[in-house]
Every structure is written in structure tokens, then in C-alpha cells.
Amino acid sequence: MNRTRSRGWLGALPLLAFFALVFGVPAVVLVAGAFTAQGRPSLANLSQSLQGGYLNAMIGSVRLSAVVALLGAVLGTFLAYAIVTSRRTLLREAVLTASGVLANFGGVPLAFFWIATLGNSGVVSGLVGLPSGSLYTFWGLALVYLYFSVPLMVLAMAPALDGLRPQWREAAANSGATSWHYWRFVALPVLAPAMLGGVVLLFGGAFSAYATANAMVGTVVPLVTLKIASALTGDVLVGYENIALALSLDMVVVAGLVMAIYLPLQRRTSRWLH
Amino acid sequence: MAALTGLERVSGADTPRPRRAWWRGAVFLLAGIYFLVPLGTAFWYTIHTPGAGVSLSAYGELLTADGFVRSLSLSLGLALATIAVVLLLALPAMLAVRLFAPRLRPVMEVLCTLPLVVPPITFVAGIGTALRGGTDLLAPTPFWATLIAIQDPGFPLVLVLAYVVLVLPFVYRSLDAGLRTMDVRTLVEAARNLGASWPYVLARVIVPNLRSALASASFLTLALVLGEYTVASLLGYQPFAVWIVTVSGSKGQLSVAVSILSLLLIWLLLLAVSTVFGKEKGK
């Protein structure tokens, strides 16, 4: 057993080697490329990636993700509360299953659904006389992103809301608390970690979404993922590849900061799930 | 007296129940409109052509559409290869960490969370640049042929490699949950003491106990790979999700029909996962 024990960790070696090669090498190349301009080390790419159109795209992405995350969190929490307090088990199961499906429904098919509904030749836009191009805007994109964000929030909040014990409400009421007091001082503090975690999850999802935006708006709405893609596919001048790498590095930094909030919170939330 | 007020409050909180029910009904109604209308109109869009009436021809056209079979079989092939590679890499590694190297556990957890933090588009930016740089750098060596081979458009292995990284977090979670339900150490030691070889232990002791976790990891991988667009399109390949976009320009109805089918597919896959897990719980 002793000999196996000392060699046992070798079982993890293939995965570690694979990860170093497939994830590590591109990561190193990305960082190195972001700090290289005309073959020499420089900060030019990074400073350029934070100026003009590129900065606009980054701000656009962060704004869109923030709007989707906040709206999705509020609407998703309401829906989750409605489900959790509903006494009809069938309805409850149906909505939770549908949330599971829709939270995983993204990318190109999602874009086509909405184009068929509210696009320029869409079914509903013809009925209500929607002006042409309304869907292909910032708010149109936010509306579409909510289609997978709200269900995701429902999935994140339902277990936490289920964990709210009726005894807490009764205890609060017995101590003379109004409904507002109960929500403000008991329920919301308990739910806060789960909600913040959900907000971060929705932000990350909207921030890194590319397929839906690409199929819907092309380059009408400035988003950082669309800028990276057009720089990579060579729609722009040669030498702009490293700008794509610098933009990617910016994105990783933003996503990393947001994730850094999420991970410790996730641990705190799980305490309330049991 | 205090107890009396307390009781009154409780019953007072109970009386506005009809109002709360009304509020809940409104939430369900709005959610129903928002989520079901696009679904319904998308379906209507695929079967109704202005001036030509209602027909299901968009769905029939699918099978004969140019590139449908090729792109779908490419996607399925990529998914199967990804499932095989990710399970062969992750399962031995997780067992090794559990049995022999618990100190590697935090490392594994970080590695299996990183792909969630990094947006796929930045990952593909890194891979694309690494491939181009690598091809120049390795041109005089035999590795060059390997780099070219993994980029073969007929079956781009590079996509399998990228997908393995992208699905690793989900596979890790799923297998970790499965391993938690069994006493790995006792089972392995018992089998080894009885003279079983390592491959035998894996195939006859570990895998049968992990069946549901392995199944759900595979279904999740299948769903993710079939719908993946960003990496494939930016590296210039044409699996299923990329093909849908290509045909959408000329055949709008067809592309929406495929979208509806892909929603159904996600539903079926999730149903499969939950049935597999439901059975396990029932035992």
C-alpha cells in the first residue's frame, strides 16, 4: 500500500498536464500578447484597449450586464417567491423544470426566437406596429438576455426562499414586527448572500455572452465580446490581434473581480440551504 | 396582555391572504406572457407563411437541408469525443486526489473553477493566437504536423480539447457529488486486498457505483457541446450551432424550426439527468 500511496497522485498527472497545455499555454500567450506591440514589450495595447471605441464597448458590456443582473435578480426573486409560496405542487414543479430548461437555453437559438417574435418581420412586432429595429438596441438585447437570466435567478433563489422558516415570521410577528420589519430585518439579511450570488452569476452570464448578441445586433450595439470577435476574425487592420488579446485580458480582469465576490458568498449561502 | 397582542398580530397577518394570492397570480401571468409568447410566436413563424398558409414543411425540409446531416454528425462526434476525454482525465484524477493526495484538492478545485471565470471568447482568443504562433514556432519540428492534424476541418480535435476545458467545471461538480455518496477508500482497499488489479477496480467497483454521476456529466457535456457557438465559429469550423447561423440568412423559417428543436433537446437531456438522479435517490 505504501508504494501505491507514494505513486498514487500520478493518477492526477494526465489532467494536470492536459490543463497546463490546453488552458495554461493559451493563457500565457494571451497575457504575453497583450503586453507586446510590434514585437517589443509595451503597454500600448492595453492603453489603447481602454480608449475610444474599445472603452465604449467595455462600458456598454458592463452596463448591459449590470442592467440584466439587477432586473433579472429582482424579477427572478419575485417569481421564485411566488413559486415557493404557491400551494399547487404541479405548478411549482412545472415552473422549476421550465426554469432549468430556459436557464440553459441561450446562444443562437435564443436570438432566433426573439427575432421571430419582435424582429423586423416578427409576428408580434407586426401586430403591435413596433418601429423597425427596436429589438436590435441596448434594451432589446437586455429583454432577450432576461429570457435566460430570470430563470437562472429563480433556480438560485428557490432553495434559499425554501429555507425561510415560517417560525421566523411567527417569531417576528410575536415580537410585534410588521411585515415590512420582517422583510427588512429577518428575511432580506438571510437571503442577501444568495441574492448577491445570483446577481454575480447573471452578470457573468450576460458579460460573456457572444453568440446571441452576434446573431442579433451584429455591431449595432457596442459590446466588448463583439469587438474581440471582429478583431480576431481580421475585419480590422493587421496588428490589431494584440488589441483583441488586450481586450480579452480586460474582460478576464472584470470577470475575475466579479467572481472574487461570488466564491466566498457561495460558501456562506450554502449554510442556509439545509 | 403581551401574548394577546402577539396572537392578534398573527391572525392579522393571515387576513390579507386574498391580496397576496392576487399578487401571485399577477406575477405568474406576466411571467407566462413573457416566457410563452416568444415560444408560441416562434412556432407560428415556422408553420405560417404569409400568403401561403399553414404548413409543417420547414420541419420536413430540415432533413434534406444542405449541411444539416454533416454539421449535426460533426457536433455529435465532437460531443462523444469530449465526453470520453473528459471522463478519462477527470475520473482517475479525482480518485487519486481523494485516495492519495488530499493536499491537491484545493488545486483541483481552483482548476475546475477557472474555466467558469474566464469568458469563452477570451479563451478562444488565447487558443487562436497560440495555434498561429505555435505553427510558426514549430515549423522545423515534427510537432508541426501534430498541430496541423488537430486543426483538420473534417474533425477538429482542437475543439475537443477546448470543450474538455469548458465542461470540466460541470463534470467535476457532478462526479464530486457522486463520489461523495460512496465510501471510495473502503471499497478500493477491499477490492485491492482481494487481489483486484487497478483497471478491474475502476471498471467493476468504481464505475458501477458512479453510474448516475457519469450519466449526468455526459448529458451535460452533450448539451453544452451541441449548443456551443463561440469557440467553433471563431476558430472557423462549422458544427451544428454555426451551421444554423449560416442557413438563417437564406432560410429564416428553417433556422427558427431548428431553434425550437434545440429547446426540446435541452428539455429532454435535462429530463434524462433528473430521471437518472431521481432513481438514485429512490434507492
Q: Can you describe this structure in just a few lines?
A:
The complex is a heterodimer of chains A (274) and B (283). Chain A is mainly α. Chain A contains 13 helices and 2 strands; from the N terminus they run ααββααααααααααα.
Query: Strand pairing plus helix content of chain A: what structural class?
Result: mainly alpha
CATH class designation of chain A: Mainly Alpha
Give the strand content of chain A.
under 5%
If helices are DSSP runs of H or I spanning 4 or more residues, what is the number of helices of chain A? 13
Taken together, the total number of domains of chain B comes to 1
CATH topology of chain B: MetI-like fold
The biggest sheet of chain A amounts to:
2 strands, antiparallel
Strand content of chain B: under 5%
Structural class category of chain B: mainly alpha
Overall mean pLDDT of chain A stands at 84
Sequence-ordered SSE layout with sheet pairings:
The complex is a heterodimer of chains A (274) and B (283).
Chain A: H1 2-8, H2 13-34, E1 36-37, E2 40-41, H3 44-49, H4 52-85, H5 89-103, H6 107-118, H7 123-128, H8 138-162, H9 166-174, H10 179-208, H11 211-217, H12 224-232, H13 241-270
Antiparallel strand pairs in A: 1-2
Chain B: H1 2-14, H2 17-47, E1 48-49, E2 53-54, H3 57-64, H4 68-99, H5 105-111, H6 114-117, H7 120-137, H8 143-150, H9 157-180, H10 184-193, H11 198-209, H12 211-227, H13 230-234, H14 240-248, H15 252-282
Antiparallel strand pairs in B: 1-2
Helix pairs in contact in B: 2-15, 3-15, 4-9, 4-12, 4-14, 9-12, 10-11, 12-15, 14-15
